[in-house]
Amino acid sequence: MRAVRRNGWTLGLALLLAALLLLTKLIQPSFGASGLDSLGRAALPFAFAVAAMSVVVIAGGIDLSVASMMAVAGVTAARLMEGIDGAMAIPVVLLVLLIGAVMGAVNGLLIVWTRLPDIVVTLGMLFVWEGTALLILNAPGGAATPWLRQAILGPLVLPVIPEAVTALIPRSLLVLAIILALIWLPLRRSKLGLSIYAVGSDATAAFRSGVAVGRTRVAAYAIAGVLAAFGGLSLTLATGNGEPIPGPYLLAAVASVVLGGVALTGGKGGLLGPVLAVFILRTLRLDLTLLSVDPNVTTIIEGTILALIVMMGGLLAIKEKRA
């Protein structure tokens, strides 16, 4: 019961997502394995963007350049993977992840060295990374390695599990779960993870307790850069080419962080809630589309919901600071 109370918000989000998926099935009875696969692929880049933003927010910051870093990673992967097949694609993936870590670390170092607010530095870096993406690829192009594309396309296939079950599990969801588990679970229990929470909760108290605040913040931004690189990679694999113009990930990431239970003041939250929030918002958009709502009206509704969620998070953050 204690675990249920501690994770009540996350459980509530899971139930809300289940209810929305049931509503989707009622709206369109043919919604099934292919629909879940499409939803998973559409949500995958958003989920990595939200994971990146969550790590930074837990550390007490914010990163407005997440979408631009995703664009740099995506176009780099598309350019380097063009004409490459087999195991040669693995070094490309590792290089792209390294580039993501470097971009995130640069953001963190600038924030620590200049002592300017995170929002100011990362707003400037948004344009730096966006320009970098356009230098690498000035128009959509390149290609993704076919076998890597297949890793996130279609339903899961496991001989030991009945096909009726695996058909409803998108490969994209499995890839997301494995990557986030490999990064987040060891991190959260590590000294660095505890330091990230401590710095986000109270940087002064963390410093007095012996935590290297500057190094911890840089590390948090570097981890966010790796997750953003995964987001850019997933977008390239889903579409088959690189897109240099950043997608609509920034506001969605902040809104999902708030809806997922991460405090904008830092030091509280995890990754599961924000990722569930991503799928809730994407499913809501899917339902509006299936109801034949005008695309412009859908955009207005979605934007209004995102803005309200972000404003709610901001008001809660102000209230917590005053308390």
Automatic annotation (TrEMBL):
**What is its quaternary makeup?**
The complex is composed of two ATP-binding proteins (LsrA), two transmembrane proteins (LsrC and LsrD) and a solute-binding protein (LsrB).
Species this chain originates from: uncultured Rubellimicrobium sp
A Pfam family annotated for this UniProt entry: BPD_transp_2
What domain of life?
A: Bacteria
**UniProt keyword list:** Cell inner membrane, Cell membrane, Membrane, Transmembrane, Transmembrane helix, Transport
Q: What is this protein called?
A: Autoinducer 2 import system permease protein LsrD
For this protein, the record's CDD domains field holds:
TM_PBP1_transp_AraH_like
Stated role: Part of the ABC transporter complex LsrABCD involved in autoinducer 2 (AI-2) import. Probably responsible for the translocation of the substrate across the membrane.
